[in-house]
Amino acid sequence: MQSTSRFEATASLQLHALISDLHWRIQMLDGDIAEEERNAGNADPRSPTYSMLAQNMRARRDNLRTSVALLEARVERTALLSRAA
Fold first, then answer.
1. Which domain of life is it from (predicted)?
2. Residue 6: CB partners within 8 Å, gap ≥ 6?
3. pTM greater than the 0.85 cutoff
4. What residue spans of 1-85 are helical by DSSP H?
5. How far apart are CA 84 and CA 79, in angstroms?
6. Which residues of the chain have pLDDT under 50?
7. Distance of CA 80 to CAs 5, 32, 84, Å?
């Protein structure tokens, strides 16, 4: 079995920390979206009177979710490659 280099271990820890931070930001955005919807009195994103701020926060949250999925896939690929080596 091959040992993990310090660089690989650090990179892996940094990726996990980044993923964790992005999850936290997603949770914050979820709360902000809910608050904005309450304040605007409209929680239907398909409505023409839906808050632009909430719409922008939803787009940001969705982009962060995509980023998290890509980073998690990278972590999984790296784990599979290190197990195969």
1. Bacteria
2. none
3. no
4. 6-40, 52-84
5. 9
6. 1
7. 16, 37, 6
